[in-house]
């Protein structure tokens, strides 16, 4: 793979927080945003506003909640976390259209974009799985 192919693939597989925010404001029905972070609930108390909370550990049991007619945007903690990439792979293998939000929730918060307190309790373990 040459450099041009790499960057084209990277842009196809990811979306920046700014690009997602703008695009979602223009067409809010286009996307289904998923917070796939694992770990204890107290460290996941904030999520991106309007995100669906489906931890990676629960994904197999909750696939029916994810629409096939929308572009799926997944995110996890930060650039060092690969949980979103693991989830993206699983969804792509099932014919979903998926992109990863670059920088995860850390980049989102750094840009002071809207977050909300999570109201959903999940079963997941206390292990991150990154």
Automatic annotation (TrEMBL):
Pfam families: Rhodanese (PF00581)
Highest taxon of source: Bacteria
InterPro entries: GlpE_sulfurtransferase, Rhodanese-like_dom, Rhodanese-like_dom_sf
Domain (Rhodanese): residue spans on this chain: 27-117
Gene3D superfamilies: Rhodanese-like domain
SUPFAM superfamilies to which the protein is assigned, alphabetical: Rhodanese/Cell cycle control phosphatase (SSF52821)
Entry's transmembrane regions: none
Listed name of the protein: Rhodanese-like domain-containing protein
Protein source organism: Psychrobacillus psychrodurans
